[in-house]
Design goal:
By secondary structure, the chain is of the alpha+beta class. The chain is built from 8 helices and 16 strands.
């Protein structure tokens, strides 16, 4: 388990919340039914990322979870474009604490604290799935999340029951994850993180988000023209691509974050994330490379170590 309380949390209410977001974000928001959710991006008119986010339709409102550093920007931008729509925003970041539970025993651990959700219902949730629950006699929200690197749940609880909930989960066998272990699992899963593997200069296609974040059949949204032009006129070709990298030998002594990725004497990219993978018993990384070097099995060097471009996720 890992503490995720540092993430941004915004609730949207009002009859037009889904249609309003549908015109702003890259994914199909109006298709979400209560208990469903999706991953999406918020773009500028130039197709650059303002933030990524997860949306969860709870029935009477929608919950948006953003990186902590983009919460205020997203909230301000979305609020300023409301004209006559029936949409209200609320910042509930400080209302909830959040615990992520990863691994095949997550459902069993959750049963110790979420007493009003049947095991079958918990196990049946897919990414974006959600349900209301209660923990310690207080309202709680359970989410199935797809950004941990492995199948995972996220439990939102009132701040006043967070410590008791954490201790109960520990007693049931849940092991607190270190920052290093959490990062290793994320990178093994090939999951990019905003403000590390992508930022305000990134087009989602460069980060490989088209499959999970972009609905190609929906109507207009901010930045769609750029995305459509690249996909259809440019046949999806972008100047650089986020790829996985597997390094040979021991962990290099010099820092890998920001290290140059080279082919012969030519710099073809830069590393954005790196970790030791216990599963692969190797150093692995994520990084952007020129599109001509993005094919799996392409040989490169990173910080003087031999490396190979690797399809992600590294571990399935």
């Amino acid at each position: 388990m890992a503490d995720r309380s540092d993430r941004g949390r915004i609730v949207l209410s009002g009859a037009d919340r889904a249609s309003y977001l549908h015109g702003m974000l890259t994914n199909d928001i109006v298709a979400l039914q209560p208990g469903q959710g999706c991953y999406a991006c918020y773009l500028t008119a130039q197709g650059r990322m303002i933030s990524d986010m997860w949306l969860f339709e709870l029935g009477d409102m929608m919950l948006m979870i953003t990186p902590g550093r983009t919460r205020a920007t997203v909230l301000d931008r979305l609020d300023q474009f409301i004209f006559s729509e029936d949409v209200q925003f609320g910042d509930v970041t400080d209302t909830w604490s959040s615990i992520a539970l990863l691994g095949p025993e997550a459902v069993r651990a959750l049963q110790a604290v979420v007493l009003d959700a049947p095991t079958e219902r918990l196990a049946a949730l897919t990414d974006g799935g959600n349900l209301r629950a209660s923990v310690g006699g207080r309202p709680a929200i359970l989410l199935r999340v797809g950004d941990a690197g492995v199948p995972a749940y996220e439990l939102l609880v009132s701040r006043d029951v967070f410590e008791d909930t954490w201790r109960t989960l520990e007693a049931r066998g849940a092991v607190p994850l270190s920052v290093e272990a959490t990062e290793a699992i994320r990178v093994e899963g090939g999951v990019p993180r905003f403000h590390q593997d992508m930022d305000e200069s990134t087009i989602p296609l460069e980060a490989g988000l088209e499959r999970i974040a972009i609905n190609l059949q929906k109507g207009c949204y901010v930045g769609q023209e750029v995305i459509t032009r690249v996909l259809h006129r440019g046949h999806g070709r972008v100047a650089k691509r986020l790829v996985g990298l597997t390094l040979s030998g021991a962990m290099p002594s010099e820092p890998l974050l920001g290290a140059a990725i080279q082919s012969a004497d030519r710099e073809v990219g830069r590393v954005t994330s790196a970790t030791w993978s216990p599963s692969m018993k190797a150093t692995i990384a994520l990084g952007y490379v020129h599109r001509d070097y993005a094919a799996p099995d392409t040989a490169v060097t990173v910080a003087g170590a031999a490396a190979v471009v690797t399809a992600v996720p590294f571990v399935s």
